[in-house]
Design brief:
Layout lengths: L2 H22 L5 H11 L19 E2 L4 E3 L3 E3 L4 E2 L4 E4 L6 E3 L4 E2 L4 E5 L4 E3 L4 E2 L4 E5 L3 E3 L4 E2 L4 E3 L2 E2 L12 E2 L4 E3 L4 E2 L4 E3 L3 E2 L4 E2 L4 E2 L7 E4 L4 E5 L1
Parallel strand pairs: 1-4, 2-5, 3-6, 4-7, 5-8, 6-9, 7-10, 8-11, 9-12, 10-13, 11-14, 12-17, 13-18, 14-19, 17-20, 18-21, 19-22, 21-23
Antiparallel strand pairs: 15-16, 23-24
């Protein structure tokens, strides 16, 4: 082996060990953010950084992640991308992300008023999705594909006459429950009390106000089943 090849081989070994070291200690603390930033120097950004979560069971979170949540439970190899925010009010419940969940850029998760969020293993959530679990909870199964700009609201404002909307009490028909292997297209909105069955597909820009059975394809506002897979 030539000196040049030996140098390249040694560089790759050192690079891998450094990456694993930085990923292992990445997190929301000041030192964790520094470790995340150092690891990001070896990945060119956006989805390339998602591969870093596979290097260590502790997973990887970007140095731009904002976590203000004292009941966050992360599984193994979880990825939290750039500018992901996870927030809890004083009355909010747990956020639980199972093994190999990936949250890409600019996702917001908030729990308040007794609500919680649970995301199943291998589920991928694309940029700019919004989750606010208030009054009731958001439960999403495993191996789901959620496209950008989807929104999940398991509550609503009251609309009584003579009272400003900001002063209306929150109301809820129940949890949002989404099964395994579900695909939600771009811009889908899911409202309170809705259950979406395993293997269902929801078309882009649909508003889901009623249950969708397993393996159904639903589109529209409000979403209606147009066929079965």
């Amino acid at each position: 082996m030539s000196i040049f090849r030996k140098f390249i081989h040694l560089y790759r070994i050192i690079k891998k060990k450094l990456l694993v070291f930085f990923v292992r200690f990445s997190g929301g603390s000041a030192t964790g953010k520094l470790a995340s930033w150092c690891a990001s120097l070896f990945a060119s950004g956006y989805k390339s950084q998602a591969t870093l979560s596979g290097l260590h069971p502790s997973g990887y979170m970007s140095c731009t992640v904002s976590i203000a949540h004292d009941d966050l439970q992360l599984g193994h190899h979880v990825y939290l991308g750039e500018r992901v925010s996870i927030y809890k009010t004083a009355t909010g419940g747990r956020v639980e992300l199972a093994d190999k969940v990936k949250l890409y850029s600019d996702i917001i998760m908030e729990t308040t008023d007794g609500g919680s969020i649970r995301i199943g293993e291998h589920t991928h959530i694309q940029p700019r999705c919004h989750f606010v679990a208030g009054k009731s909870s958001i439960i999403i199964g495993g191996r789901c594909e959620i496209a950008p700009a989807c929104a999940f609201y398991p509550f609503n404002h009251g609309i009584k006459a003579g009272l400003p909307v900001m002063e209306q009490a929150l109301i809820s028909k129940g949890n949002i429950e989404i099964g395994d292997d579900v695909w939600l297209g771009y811009g889908v909105v899911v409202l309170d009390g809705v259950k979406i069955g395993n293997g269902a597909v929801i078309g882009a820009n649909s508003v889901v106000t009623k249950d969708v059975p397993a393996n159904a394809v639903a589109v529209g506002s409000p979403a209606k089943v147009i066929r079965m897979r």
